[in-house]
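INTERNAL AUDIT FORM
Audit reference: QA-55
Scope: verify that the stored structure record matches its stored sequence.
Auditor: D.O.
Record contents follow.
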Amino acid sequence: MLKRRRTQKLKRNVIYSTATRRRIMLRGLHKKIIWRRRMFAMQQMEAPISEPLAS
């Protein structure tokens, strides 16, 4: 069981060992981060507008 797990993890590391793969992974992560930040900024902008309506 432990041996099998270890080889699976090793295989995963081999997949991402090339520079191109790592770059692709980082780009995907970066896109997510940028998108989250933009969504948060939009929420922050909308907050003062919706506050007077609630109170």
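Auditor finding: record pair retrieved intact. The chain has a mean pLDDT of 76.
Action required: none
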